[in-house]
Amino acid sequence: MSDAEPVDWESTEMPELAEPSRSRPIHQHPHFKVIVTTISVGLILIISSSIAYWLIQVVNQEVLNRPHPDYLDWQDEFRTISGLDNVTGLDGSGVRTCVVDSGIELGHVDFAGKQLAGWKDFINDRGEPYDDQGHGTAMSGLIWADGWMKGVSPGVELLVAKAIGSTGEGVDETIAAAVDWCVEQGADIISLSLGGAPGFNFILASTDQLEESVEDALDAGVFVVAAAGNDGADDDGDVESPGSVEDVICVGGIDRNGQIWSGSSVGDNNGRFLPLPPIAPRFDPDRKPELVAPGHEVPILLREGSEFDTAWGHASGTSASTAWVSGALGLLLEQRADLRHDGSSGGSGAISDVKDWIQSSSVGQSGHDDHYGYGHLDTAALLSAAA
After folding, report:
1. 38-47: per-residue pLDDT in tens?
2. What are the Cα distances from residue 212, in Å, to 104, 176, 202, 225, 242?
3. Where are the beta strands (DSSP E) in 82-183?
4. Which distant-in-sequence residues (6+ apart) come within 8 Å of 65 by Cβ?
5. Which terminal residue of the chain has fewer beta carbons within 10 Å of its beta carbon, N or C?
């Protein structure tokens, strides 16, 4: 660049910088109100959404922590139709009831604070109570619950024998062993919400091991309550075993209006030789079923881990009817402690007396009906008859 003219810095004028403009206060900005309004609306929407989400979570959690209102209404209707509304001062205290089923989930909120009188696992030999199927929790709840759902006899000393596996099935030998255990543990009542085909009964023996154990329990003065069965839609002609055993109290199912549930099994009381097995004629008060009880859309407890997002549900079946009657017997044996297996009036004579009272106190029939039995359970009338 040596050939270029030198710059005369003294005579060269420097460019002038533009005078900086004075900035306006932000509140005087022409879009200030629009911006503030937009931000405010956005914040309000965010806060409102957060509050709404929180409220939804609270409401959902509250709903999950209590039964559907219909279940509470249905429970009240069943308690009314079965005569429990007219029973006061009894909860089954002092009576031992043994439930042979799939186990029990003691962590259910409606079992809060309760302790079992005894537990035995005949399936997996586990020391702590559990239920990997759910049926046992539901049946125990109908007898023993004392929360949102109210068992018929929440004060009984409950024994639970797990003899049903996770598939809901069991075998005679295992269930028979569970029945024997109930007797050994001093049970006054054994509740069997189950049933199967009867064995052949001969003069001195039976081919059915469960029926043999049930007979032994009855001989010891223990009341045995069993389901009539759920084959009413395709009925095989008689109630299930061991409900078919003479001195067992066999229970069918009704709805909230006192009408027979369509699935409840019919009894064959006239006797038959064919089809096998043969059945001898039955006579009062041992005609089958002996009575009916709540068995259609019955509110029940659900075990944790079921496919539902709640701890309550409903079910239909004579299993529920059986538990309901077992609970009513708990109230009866509290009122009449002498009728228990170790009472002064206990034994086979006590069982015969109670069956007479069932025949005379059940409601809706003038005689026996192969579907309805002697009528539907009226707990207050049964207690009155026993008194």
Report:
1. 666 555 655 5
2. 26, 8, 12, 15, 9
3. 96-101, 118-121, 157-162
4. 109, 311
5. N
Lowest average pLDDT, out of 36-40, 60-64, 107-111, goes to: 60-64
Q: What angle do CA 315, 245, 373 make, to 5 degrees?
A: 55
CB atoms within 10 A of CB 337: 15
Tell me, what DSSP letter sits at residue 338? G
Contact, 73 vs 297, CB < 8 A?
no
Map residue 277 onto helix, strand or coil. Answer: coil
Cβ 153 vs Cβ 330: under 8 Å: yes
Task: Write out the two tokens for 225.
Answer: 């309550």
d(CA 40, CA 340): 75
Query: How many residues appear in the chain?
Result: 387
Catalytically annotated residues: 101, 135, 319
Going 268 to 278 to 223 to 133, the CA torsion angle's sign is negative
**CA-angle at 71, arms to 68 and 72, nearest 5°:** 95
Tokens coding 149: 């759902």
CA distance 286 to 248: 8
Q: Which amino acid is at 320?
A: A
**C-alpha–C-alpha distance, residues 84 and 88, integer Å:** 8
C-alpha 17: how far from chain center? 89
> In what helix (H) or strand (E) does residue 332 lie, and over which residues does it extend?
helix 318-335
pLDDT, tens only, 117-151:
999 999 999 999 999 999 999 999 999 999 999 99
Residue 325 CA to residue 271 CA, distance in Å, equals 26
